[in-house]
Amino acid sequence: MDEEYDAIVLGTGLKECILSGMLSVSGKKVLHIDRNKYYGGESASITPLEELFSRFGAPAPDETYGRGRDWNADLIPKFLMANGSLVKLLIHTGVTRYLEFKSVEGSYVYKGGKISKVPVDQKEALASDLMGMFEKRRFRNFLIYVQDVREDDPKSWKDMDPNILTMQQVYDKFGLDKNTQDFTGHALALYRNDDYLNDKALTTIRRIKLYSDSLARYGKSPYLYPMYGLGELPQGFARLSAIYGGTYMLDKPIDEIVVENGHVVGVKSGEEIARCKQVYCDPSYIPSRVNKTAQVVRCICLMDHPVPNTRDALSTQIIIPQKQVGRKSDIYVSLVSYTHQVAAKGWFIAMVSTTVETDNPEAEIKPGLELLGPIRQKFVSVSDFFQPTDDGVSSQIFISKSFDATTHFETTCDDVLDIFRRGTGEDFDFSKVKHDLGEEEP
C-alpha cells in the first residue's frame, strides 16, 4: 500500500464498484478497499438461504424451501431500465460480458385497492381499466404528443413549449384528471413525489420516453434483472476496474482517512498508509461527513406463488402512488423468482419498500404486503438514509448517498454520475472505453 493513487475507493457497494470501474476506464490509478470479505456492501446478495434466515434471527428454513444454495436473495433488489443509464454504462464499459439479464414480465400500478397494468402506448391506453372512456382518449392524445416531441424541433411541440410550460400545465392542456396524472408521474416517469408538477415539462417527457423506449426493447415491461441477483453487478464492475489496472483488497480494515489542511491525502490501515488525491466511499466510512435525512423500511417476502392479478407473472414491479394510500411517499413492490436463479424451483422473492413516515414502519408497507397473497416467511428491516453534508470538492472526499426505497436503478445512476462529475470535473466519457460493445443486447 506504499504507492500513491489517483483515487482510493472504500466499500464494494454497487455505487462504489461502478465508480471504481468508471475511474479506471478514465485512466485513473485506483485502489479499491473493503473492510468486508464480500462484495456488495449493504446491497449484497445473500446465499445460501440459511444465511438469510440467520441474518434476521429466524429459525433455519425447512426442507420445503429446496436447496439453500439455490437461493440468492438481494437485500436491496432493484430493476434496471432497459434503456436507462446503468444498462448504457454496462454496455459501453463491457461489463455485459460477465452478466446475463432477463426481462421483468409485468409493470403495474395501484389504484383504488387493485392493481392494473401500466399503459404506455395508445393501444394499451384504450384497453386500460384505470380510466373511463373519455379519459382514455385524452390520455391517448397526451401519449401521442409525448412521443412526437423532438427537443430540437419546435414544430413537434404543438404550441406547448416543454421548455417553458410546467408539467401541471401540460396535463391541464390535455384535461387529464388527478388519477391519470398520478400514475403517469409515479409509474411512468417514476417520480417519488409530486414536486415535478411545478418543474419544466421537458424532464418528465424525457422520463416517459425512457420508459416507453425501454419497454420497446423487450416488450413485457421496461425492466431487466440480472440472473443470480444483483451480487453479480459489483463483481462485474470490479473485474472491469482490474482490466484497466485497478487494485482490489477485500477484508482490509480502514482505521483512518487521513486529511491534511482540509484535503484528503491518504487512507490508513494498521501501520500502512496508501496515499491518494481523492477518496470515494459509502456513508459508513465517514459518519462525521454525512447527515441522516430519512429511513427506509424494506420487507423481503418468500412465497411459493406469483403475485395475484398479475397473470401469473414470474417477475413484476408494482408502484403504489402516495395519494392512493394517503401518504407522502410511494410504496414499491418487486417480485423475482426461480427463473432468475435467485430462488429454488417454484419459489418467489418479493420486496416491499417505502420511505418511513411514522413510528410504525411495518404498518406503512401493509398496502404492498396485502397485494402479495400468502407469505411463507418475511424479513423486515429499517435502515437509515444518509447523504453527504457537502459536495466533496474542497476536501476531495466524495460520498455516495444510501440506497432509497425505489425498486429501480434510476436514482442510483443519477447519484453515481453526479459523484463522477464532482470528482473529475467532467461527465463520464463513454468514448474512452476501449472495448465499446456497441448496442449489444444485455
From TrEMBL:
GO terms for molecular function: GTPase activator activity; Rab GDP-dissociation inhibitor activity. Keywords: Cytoplasm, GTPase activation. One of its GO terms (cellular component) is cytoplasm. Belongs to the Rab GDI family. Transmembrane segments: none annotated. This is Rab GDP dissociation inhibitor. Regulates the GDP/GTP exchange reaction of most RAB proteins by inhibiting the dissociation of GDP from them, and the subsequent binding of GTP. It is found in: Cytoplasm. InterPro entries: FAD/NAD-bd_sf (IPR036188), GDP_dissociation_inhibitor (IPR018203), RabGDI (IPR000806). It holds the Pfam family GDI. One of its GO terms (biological process) is vesicle-mediated transport. Gene3D superfamilies: FAD/NAD(P)-binding domain (3.50.50.60), Guanine Nucleotide Dissociation Inhibitor, domain 1 (1.10.405.10), Guanine Nucleotide Dissociation Inhibitor, domain 2 (3.30.519.10).
